[in-house]
Amino acid sequence: MNIAVIGATGKFGRLFISKLLSIPNYQITAISKSAENIYENSHRVTAKSIDATNQKDLKSALENQDIVFCAVSGSDQVTIARNLTELNVNRLIFMSVVGIYNELPKGNGDEFNLDNEPEQRVHRNATDIIENSSLDYTILRSGYIAYQNEEDYVITKKGEPAKGYVSNAKSIKKIVLDIIKNPKLYSCESISVTRDMS
Asked: Sign of the CA dihedral 29, 34, 38, 42?
């Protein structure tokens, strides 16, 4: 299976690629502006130092990919989301954040809701682009990522209150791998993966 990771040099991107490399039969394309400075090309890894906001370069990097995992945050997220929809990738897992639907309950991180935190707008705009596309996508909303070696999570879907605003990296890795193993899982859904802090 061919898996592309956009945002491959970010903290979570590196951690996730390390996990993928522990599983046989996954061919990985690592994509970021500095991917070739971090990853050596091998029989399992192809590093592509590109700007994913450049549609032509992104199209070339995503040729023959079965699954695309986008772990990019920040202002480029909207342009990358638009590029992914126009390129019509096979299966997309797109990381976003809790709070974009104002789904965090009062007293449980509601200060991070879109109505209270203007910086959430870019995440919401990018998510809207993906959700309004014809792609086979999963929006995976995380909270603040804690790099602890434990799985402690609850999944909620769009329209349900999120249970918290902190996510364990190990839990996110598990859910993304579950989707890779079973691409029909959470197809065309937006899910949050957070600790239960309710």
From this structure: positive
Convert the pLDDT of each residue in 69-116 to its tens digit.
999 988 999 999 999 999 989 999 999 999 999 999 999 999 999 999
**Number of independent structural domains in the chain:** 1
Cα–Cα dist 196/198, whole Å: 6
Give the Å distances, CA to CA, from 6 to 3, 77, 98, 120: 10, 11, 20, 20
Residues of the domain holding 59? 2-194
CATH code for the domain in which residue 144 is found: 3.40.50.720
> Rounded to two decimals, what is the model's pTM?
0.96
Terminal Cα distance for the chain, rounded: 38
